[in-house]
Amino acid sequence: MPDKKISFPLVVEPFQEDVNGNLSWSNLGNLILRCASLHAEAHGFGYTYMQTHQRGWVLSRLVLELDSMPVTAEHFSITTWVSRIFRQFTDRNFSITGPDGRTFGHGISTWALIDYATRQPVNLETLPEGGFHNAMLDEVPPIATYGRARCKSTEPAAERDCRFTDLDTNGHVNSIRYIDMALDLFPADWHRAHNVRRIELAYGLEGHDGDRLELYKDDLGPTTEGGSDHRFAIEIRRPADKATLVRVIVVFD
Amino acid sequence: MPDKKISFPLVVEPFQEDVNGNLSWSNLGNLILRCASLHAEAHGFGYTYMQTHQRGWVLSRLVLELDSMPVTAEHFSITTWVSRIFRQFTDRNFSITGPDGRTFGHGISTWALIDYATRQPVNLETLPEGGFHNAMLDEVPPIATYGRARCKSTEPAAERDCRFTDLDTNGHVNSIRYIDMALDLFPADWHRAHNVRRIELAYGLEGHDGDRLELYKDDLGPTTEGGSDHRFAIEIRRPADKATLVRVIVVFD
Fold first, then answer.
1. Which residues of chain B have a CB within 8 Å of the CB of A162?
2. B252 and which of A228, B47, B48, B194 could share a cystine (Cβ 3.0–4.6 Å)?
3. Within its chain, how far is the Cα of A3 from the centroid?
4. Whole-prediction pTM
């Protein structure tokens, strides 16, 4: 059996950085999904399983918290493991570390397994042959789990059309692209002065080609009273059917 | 001395694909730039040289032509070499091949070396110590070089704001992001029916954070009379200063 924790060695390649020379959140996010996909495949519940059983993993929530980002040419690893199954959900965790033992940060993600025929989530606790329990490891990353803050703004801060290059192989807007949409609500000069320390995403309905989205933004102030960080709640809505696609919390230094 | 031609082995990772399961043009483009950067560094005229001499490579033109794209999990290589120096320009070429000797396609790019102090291009033919001539190889890829077609449309097909996640480490809109902008002028259903076979880009002024761009599009019909392909001229303009940022030709099957 493959290890319950699998580490993927990576390096920040030229043209993966943001304007500050850090690995971009977009690239980090897609690398996180890639490692999740490769780990799941190694444990027998990845792409091959999904094709055979006509089921697909759907990302429900994601939180990433990093003290700093690897920079150009820096080596780092993403380590991932599954820690929990609860009803139709499972938690997959991530650690992002450097070769010197340094920890950049951590991630927690929550997934559902959708049956393509019924469009309903499968109960992961009652799958035959022990299901995915064999892969589980009782260990969670040392970061706060999802919060409860909400965006209360009623005036959109920006609009955004979903287009071809936003889509993944399922024809849905790529889950990580919503991170770009959220970060693009802040000008480059803000990003030059403030690093993103934490991003939380709660996914609702999926976006499709041609969708016009509205992005709402609330300044929630510092995380703790008197603190020096900056917390924002962002909501990405599709006015055509009044759907909420994603709720985002971003915390800047 | 490093080889004049250097090959970089790659694989299409999960979440690098477009809606058709092909390596996306955006990812291909950034991989091309990455390989260019690594090859230049190996030959002593890369990032380290530029930092020392306060000069920077600027992409002037790029053409990519591919019969097909590598798909999910497929292995491929990008091979790159420099074939020509003419006044302040140099040509860098690319071949994209499979492990079985299969050729996916080729690329040609033209670069200028800008002196940061004067903002002027350096004459590459008169650099000391033979300049970059030692790295040159007299071989060009078997694809047509840049064409002369122009977009004549006077009504914008779309508008687009430049934002934080569009920017590279220089604070300019990433050269490859303009490919996304061009491809996003076509709905996903068009892309499902027509693969991109060739993209040409001619770069003008650079885009910056907050720029509002207008995208113009002309349907030029088939490449040759009676042909079954579809050729479009696209121009990306910044109305604020009437600048042309990029002229693009896209040919679909």
1. none
2. B194
3. 23
4. 0.95
